[in-house]
Amino acid sequence: MKIVIINSGSSSIKFQLIEMPARAVICGGMIDRIGLDTSNITYKTNTDAIEESMPIPNHRVGLEKIAELLMDKNVGVIKSTQEIDVVGHRVVHGGASFSNPVHIDAEVKEKILELFQLAPLHNPANLEGIHVASAIFTSAKQMAVFDTAFHQTIPVIAHKYAIPNKFLTENNIRVYGFHGTSHKYVSERATEYLNKSDKIITIHLGNGCSMTAIKDGISIDHSLGFAPSNGLIMGTRSGDIDHSIVFYMVNTLGYSLDAVNNLLLKESGMLGLTGFSDLREIESQAEEGNVACQLALDMNAYRIKKLIGSYTAVMNGLDAIIFTAGIGENSSYIRKLVCTDMEYFGLELDDVKNEIRSKEIREINTANSKTKIMVIPTNEEIEIANQVYALLVN
């Protein structure tokens, strides 16, 4: 069974063509920096690799480019879209409607549309991916896996907000949590690797960022909430902010609610602090003495350290922390900032191991570190394929 996995992020699309049940990756790649002046395209098969730079203004153009590559006469891996059996889509927000993978029909599309306002950077791109894939892969089943599903186990003490009860019981306002596909995948890989992982903190750092407290294999707390906008400092999202600031901006500074929403989601975070949203540029600027960029990096790590402390308290201990996703896997500097002065939590970073680049699971702690520090490359696409295939055969 050939399954194309479409993983649309806020500014990127990752994709893989996977043969199931063997989990054999036939090809894969990524388009990042969507919407910026120049986007990067990578595409790899077992025999070929392509890297290109070109403007990709939106997700529709990106998905059409992916389809072209899959069927390219020189590097393509299929001759016809009819060879694809299933397209599996990552969808960020499933709200209270979805806690398991589903076949996509008109009702599912409508529910995803209704949740646009809760995940405005993601659900529109996810639904666009579904529409475009349906038009391209006309004979394939379209299926969705939701980022919120893994966090359905978060107990009421952690997922309920301290507002009148009716907002939970009648309006389903609660902590939903996100990046669940990634957190689930890397925590399970950690369990396999360590043979013991009772108390883990997974740290997903990309353009969007989140952390999960995982105890005995299940999510018990998470940094993102009702929508994927609070918690850690992100590429363009502010993360945690005093809600009084919103009212001050509207009532005193004269901003509209739409303007404040746009500012907090698209003009804040690392972009608002530095003028750059790509961490590679920010780190480069910091090395050259840019004070604002260095402060932003320090603030970013500080927020992560605070949550490590919080989640360790909630779990009454800590066995391992896991760095994953684009920044978590590739930025040795962010990992170093996070792990500095954290000996109280048993975290001792090995500076040499931290600088090693690898696509394998690895420990980057010293031999004396009481708590494991790990880098585990996420593979949301394999996790989505696993869940889609299981739904189809069961």
Overall description:
The chain has 15 helices and 14 strands. The strands form two sheets. It has an eight-stranded mixed β-sheet, sandwiched between helices. By secondary structure, it is of the alpha/beta class. The radius of gyration is 21 Å and the shape is globular. β9 and β10 form a beta hairpin.
As a whole number of angstroms, the C-alpha radius of gyration is 21 Å
In helices, the fraction of residues equals 25-40%
* Residue windows where pLDDT falls under 50 for at least 5 positions: none
| Largest sheet features | 8 strands, mixed
Total helical segments: 15
Chain-averaged pLDDT: 93
| End-to-end C-alpha gap | 15 Å
Strand order of the largest sheet: 5-4-3-2-1-6-8-7
Counting DSSP E segments of at least 2 residues, the number of strands comes to 14
